[in-house]
Amino acid sequence: MRDALAAVGLPTVEVHLSNIAAREEFRHKSYVAPVAGSIPAWRGQLLSSLRALVSILALRKN
């Protein structure tokens, strides 16, 4: 998935259903975050993540 996201070059927001920082240690490292503009979020932050994505798209358009 990480390679596909990098290949298309589109803005990406990483959203999890749970807070990965509160889960097992092996879940703390994200392989998608480097190509997702480092905007990892969990369900409670979905709206702010979508707003960030809209802002990124607006900047790219101009």
- How do the strands line up in the largest sheet? 1-2
Described by the principal axes of the CA atoms, the overall outline is: flat
Beta-strand content estimate: 5-15%
What's the total count of β strands?
2
Q: What is the H-and-E element order? A: HEEH
What is the number of helices? Answer: 2
- Mean model confidence by pLDDT: 80
Task: Give an overview in words.
This protein has two helices and two strands; from the N terminus they run H-E-E-H. With 62 residues, the protein is of the alpha+beta class. A two-stranded parallel ribbon has the order 1-2. It is flat and about 40 Å long. It starts with a helix and ends with a helix.
Task: Describe the structure concisely for a colleague.
With 62 residues, the protein is of the alpha+beta class.
Write the layout of secondary structure elements.
Layout lengths: L1 H7 L5 E3 L23 E3 L3 H16 L1
Structural key phrases:
62 residues; two-stranded parallel sheet; alpha+beta; 10% strand; flat; 2 strands
